[in-house]
Amino acid sequence: MLGIDRRAAHYVWTAVVVVVGIYLVYLVRKTVFVFIVAMLFAYLLSPLVNLLVRFLPFKRTRTPAMALAYILFVAIVVVFVSQVGSRIGVQARELSRDLPSQIAAWQKPNPALPPTLDHLRLELLAKLREEISTRAGELISALPQAGLRFLTVASDLIYVVIVPILSFFFLKDAGVMRGHILDLVDPGPRRELLDDVLADMHLLLAHYMRALFLLALSAFTAYAVALTLLGVPYGILLAALGGLLEFIPMVGPLAAALCSILVALIGGASVAGVLIFIVAFRMLQDYILSPHLMEQGVALHPLLVLFGVFAGSEIAGIPGTFLSVPVLALVRILYVRIRRVRLGVTASPVKPVAP
Q1: Three-class HEC string of the chain
Q2: b/e code 63-101 from CB counts within 10 Å (16+ = b)
Q3: Domain containing 288: what range?
Q4: 147 pLDDT band (50/70/90 cuts)?
Q5: Which member of 128, 245, 274, 339 has the greatest number of CB atoms within 10 A?
Q6: Which residues are CB-contacts of 341 (< 8 A; sequence separation ≥ 6)?
Q7: Other CB atoms closer than 10 Å to residue 225's CB: what's the count?
């Protein structure tokens, strides 16, 4: 009557709702990230819970198995921190104390190198030493504000307690949550599509988190053993760094490799040995372990992964880089499922759905 196309108005209204929803999610992005981390942590503990369910006499409820899984996880963390965490802390303090002097000692001219290469080496070391001094000065100047920032840090520490609690509810009520999501859609092709998408997402996140944890553990073990045998200083610290950076796709392993080479170069260790180890380890990790562990869950082109990592870093910093690959993989799953449904609709007529 007013010259407004109802279909166009419907599309505009849908777009407005989606944009407002994205904006609201952005406003509470920190809380959303905490819930996402809790869900991923639940996926990490899920295999242990399923294993304990098989052996415990309580078959009607998963609560005893989940409680025992949390106790085992806390025990493992305590043992790891007590045995390895103290050594990492000691080596971190030693590195921050000795690195400037080691750079200064290595900054002396080397007659064995060509003059041009030796001059370039000295310039790079001078810039590196200047950067370290600048960061140290910024840290000292920021110390008077440490009392105010402590409140912010203390408020963030509460998430260490909240994440396991949220994960407990994800483990306990995952089936109920799935049912509620399916109930939002009426029975029919769309409900079947949503069911298939949820099943694919479940398998993807389960494979991705378990594979990522195992890859990080293998990186820590390999770096610790190899760097210790090669005599690289601060080997355990570099191994912990390599394990943590494994959670950041492509860019993280490259940064860990560069840090190890730099420390070996400054510390007087065998740089050639470190290079051989890194090349051999990356071939084993990237072409054997990672494809086997990831299976077909994360089938993304490396260029798309790099785009996601850099875009995620610009949008949300470190959390964005961590979530970039699973988000892209989930978008791919949704696209593939919708495309298959549309191809099926065009290829054969849709059967009528009974009311």
Answers
A1: CCCCCHHHHHHHHHHHHHHHHHHHHHHCHHHHHHHHHHHHHHHHHHHHHHHHHHHCCCCCCCHHHHHHHHHHHHHHHHHHHHHHHHHHHHHHHHHHHHHHHHHHHHCCCCCCCCHHHHHHHHHHHHHHHHHHHHHHHHHHHCHHHHHHHHHHHHHHHHHHHHHHHHHHHHHHHHHHHHHHHHHCCCCCHHHHHHHHHHHHHHHHHHHHHHHHHHHHHHHHHHHHHHHHHCCCCCHHHHHHHHHHHCCCCCHHHHHHHHHHHHHHHHHCCCHHHHHHHHHHHHHHHHHHHHHHHHCCCCCCCHHHHHHHHHHHHHHHHHHHHHHHHHHHHHHHHHHHHHHHHHHHHHHCCCCCCCC
A2: eebbebbbeeeeeeeeeeeeeeeeebeebeeebeeebee
A3: 185-348
A4: very low
A5: 274
A6: 189, 193
A7: 13
Cα–Cα distance, 6 to 12 (Å, whole number): 10
Percent of the chain with pLDDT strictly greater than 70? 75
Q: Is the pLDDT assigned to residue 24 strictly greater than 50?
A: yes
Amino acid letter, residue 318: I
> In this structure, is residue 135 part of a structural domain?
no
Whole-prediction pTM? 0.72
Average per-residue pLDDT in the chain? 76
Domain assignment present for 99: no
Give per-residue pLDDT as tens, 287-305.
888 777 765 556 677 777 7
Residue 225 has pLDDT above 80, yes or no: yes
In a domain, 211, yes or no: yes
- What is the number of other CB atoms lying within 10 angstroms of the CB of residue 264? 25
pLDDT tens for residues 99-146? 666 666 665 665 655 667 666 666 666 666 665 555 444 443 443 444
- Angle between helices 63-80 and 146-183 in degrees, nearest 10: 150
Q: What is the pLDDT of residue 148?
A: 40
Q: Can you tell me the distance from the alpha carbon of 215 to that of 219, in angstroms, rounded to the nearest whole number? A: 6
What is the tally of structural domains in the chain? 1
Q: Look at 347 and 23; give whichever has higher pLDDT.
A: 23
